Amino acid sequence: MIAGAALSLALGGFIGHAASTLTPDSVLLNGAPCTITSNGLSSAGTCSGAFVQTSATPAPTPAPTPTPTSTPAPTPTPAPTPAPVPGGITPLYAATSFWNLPIGPAPVLDPNSAGMVQAALAGSAGSANFANTAAWGRAMVFSHNSDPLYSVGCSMYDCGTVISFHIPLGATPETGSDHHLVVINLDTNAELDMWLASFSGGSWSAGSRYLTAANGWGALCAQGQHCGAAVAAGFAAFGGVVRPEEIQQGHIDHALALTASLTRSGFIACPATHTDGPSADANAIPEAARIQLDPAFNVDGQSWPQWQKVIAHALQTYGAYIYDTGGSIAIAGQGNQNGGLVWSSIGVPDGPSLSNLPWGQFRVLLVQSC
């Protein structure tokens, strides 16, 4: 991935990436110069947190084939956001998905819960934030079979599978260095997750791209298996993301997705299928660890804005999964780049601080190796 400017990291830039299965020839990029071209524009930076093969040249990007019946304009107008399903917000992932199961009244805590909370959460509380900006908020757009069909090119990781997907005109990735874009087809419940997504010359391509089910398990492969994905823990890329409509309705009915900077190296915790954690610190928190705000904490007694109380209640009921390594603690929110309800219209600012959450009063549920 490309590490953005220091200001971007301070705002909770997600440092997720898709990585192939590691081999003895794999190396971890740390501070290496690199360039990424998106929408015809090149930007230079330094790479970190991504694995590349030193003994082989990455596979060339397959030549994408645009649909013969629809040629997108160079600057298309974004398609309107589809109306939610009758009864409210379009549900994502199965009712039995780990994203949608509440924690319950008596969870088993990890023996090192206090150490991980102090080192990985409380120690970084000052920069904690809600990542809902165009740069770092997760870009998502709904599509239908009537939208143009693209053969999505691939340039870096897991490029062996040919992927075609219906993507609406004007779909826009994140502007931050990860350039994620999630496309969910409402006609098929298929989900396309892209990292380093780019639209150029009438074609879509990505550094890596994956298909999963928007009504499925919530990760790219079954628990206990190991595979790559558009986010580091191997989760579906929109898993745990907070949507504006959820804040508006006053409750979030799923676990949240959270980045942390001190994540453990070489340990894949259930339900993750992958990890990019860099730290050997015994108190580093593994990706996919589930954290919970102590239910005894009086959220409603705080002088917080209502949107923050909604998030805090979700952290008590469902908790959050560490899904990636980042420059700060950041709870993932949806970006507004593809239309829909705008955060500011419901009183939520862009990239607000969450440093006043009682990060020292979280706990880590039992961590198990996968």
List the helices and strands and how they pair.
Blueprint: E1 2-3, H1 6-10, E2 26-38, E3 41-53, H2 113-121, E4 129-131, E5 140-143, E6 149-151, E7 153-154, E8 164-166, E9 181-185, E10 190-195, E11 198-200, E12 203-206, E13 208-213, H3 244-249, E14 256-260, E15 290-293, H4 306-317, E16 320-325, E17 330-332, E18 362-364
Parallel strand pairs: 4-17, 5-9, 7-12, 14-16
Antiparallel strand pairs: 1-3, 2-3, 6-8, 9-10, 10-13, 11-12, 14-17, 15-16, 15-18
Give an overview of the whole structure.
The structure is a single chain. With 370 residues, this protein is mainly β. It is 9% helix and 24% strand. The chain is built from 4 helices and 18 strands. The strands form 5 sheets. A 6-stranded mixed β-sheet has the order 4-17-14-16-15-18, with helices on both faces. A 4-stranded mixed β-sheet has the order 5-9-10-13, with no helix packed on it. A 3-stranded antiparallel β-sheet has the order 1-3-2, with no helix packed on it. The longest helix has 12 residues.
H and E order: EHEEHEEEEEEEEEEHEEHEEE
What is the radius of gyration? Answer: 19 Å
Quaternary class: single chain
pLDDT averaged over residues? 82
Unreliable segments of 5+ consecutive residues: 1-87
Number of H/I helices = 4
Query: Into which percentage range does the β-strand content fall?
Result: 15-25%
Strand order of the largest sheet: 4-17-14-16-15-18
Structural class, from helix and strand content?
mainly beta
The helical percent reads under 10%
Main pleated sheet: 6 strands, mixed
How far from one another are the termini? 25 Å
Principal-axis shape: globular
Total beta strands: 18
